[in-house]
Amino acid sequence: MESVNMNKVQPPDQQSPAPPSLPSMTTPTPTSLSTSTSTSTATTTTTASTTTEASTATSTSANSDNTNTSTSTSTSTDKTNTDISNTDYNPQKALNMPASFDPSIVQRLTPTKNLLAISSHVVHGNVGNDAIQFPLNLRHWNVDCIYTTNLSNHPGYRQFKGTKADADLVSILYTGLNDLNLHYDAAIVGYTASKENTAAVYQILKTFHDSGRRTVTVLDPILGDNGKMYVNSDLIPVYKDILRDGLVNLVTPNQFEIETLTDMKILTADDLKLAVNKFYQLYNVKNVVVTSVQLENNPDIYCVGSAGDGAIFYFKMEQIDAVFSGSGDFFLGLLTDCFVKYNGDLVKSLKETITIVTKVLQLTYDLCTDCTNTDQKRYIGDKLYLPDLKLIESKEILLDQHMLEANELVPVFI
Description:
Blueprint: E1 24-25, H1 42-65, H2 67-82, H3 91-94, H4 104-108, E2 113-119, H5 129-138, E3 141-147, E4 149-151, E5 162-165, H6 167-179, E6 186-189, H7 195-211, E7 216-219, E8 224-225, E9 228-229, H8 235-244, E10 250-251, H9 255-262, H10 269-282, E11 287-293, E12 302-306, E13 312-316, E14 322-324, H11 327-341, H12 346-369, E15 378-380, E16 383-386, H13 395-399, H14 401-405, E17 412-413
Parallel strand pairs: 1-5, 2-3, 2-6, 6-7, 7-10, 10-11, 14-16
Antiparallel strand pairs: 4-5, 8-9, 11-12, 12-13, 13-17, 15-16
Helix pairs in contact: 1-2, 5-11, 6-7, 7-8, 9-10, 11-12
GO molecular function: ATP binding; pyridoxal kinase activity
Enzyme class: transferase
GO biological process, one term: pyridoxal 5'-phosphate salvage
């Protein structure tokens, strides 16, 4: 099979170029929005009308025959509607549901969790929060998003419009959420775009930490890839502060980023182990996943994990001969879901995440290579560049539990 490239993708005109500089977006003046919606169907209206008329007729008859009986019946009904422990409680009647309503449906619903995602946004495409929200919605997460950019599309298209968010806006939006006393089961931090935004994120994570609430926090310290920075270097000290202060449960640097954060070059497996161990010496984070690791004189790509217990393991990645935008963000969202699902079991979490991401990237590749319009195809060097993951088309993959149970990925401990 060909290889899955989880690298954070650069624009297609260069192998590892820096994205265009994004101008700041000032905080907008709030405007009042008024929305009115209403829906009805002939069936519902007819049923409701019939029920109301029947109820009115019954009530009139009761009042004509015996006023005391009417009062007693009304009191008894009110008590039954509010006391669900009453053995005669009937949810269809209490909730005005049709007789065909099955109350066990509610009991069979999968419980949902709440997540805050702080990352970039594009109007067109599936990168940043747009690669996180839909897959996690399918997997029973309510996802609230704070955008660090607002762009027309990914810069990999070679042209885009839009801006990065102003840090004050990022802070104000979170303050508004915090004022609602919301609790998030998990939080994801992806592309922050600027030092100021990263500092605002630091304060948000500190609020989570200081609140005493259990919010699983996952950080992708996006700095660059393939040996090159594609954000300003002034973000590095802020990321280091976040990592030192124990505000994160899981961090997902790629090879270049862990090299930057540890000041170590990784060429061999021994270098990799030394870098991971040094990371633990420098920072207060228990779980580390290093993506897109490629060692010297070795064509294979690895995903490496450690749960802070001294053990380091890896999965060998299948490779697809293409470059994808949004694969890292998609990976980040799914890993967070699995990490919560498996109560912090990093081996199980990575195994499931890699399996799903690989299949989604393969489907995206298959659909795009089948496209007959070669004029729409883009390349980075000799590799096909695919700026948009096919997430909607991948719905069945995202929900296929049988595929996951048959997963044969095996971790190798080093």
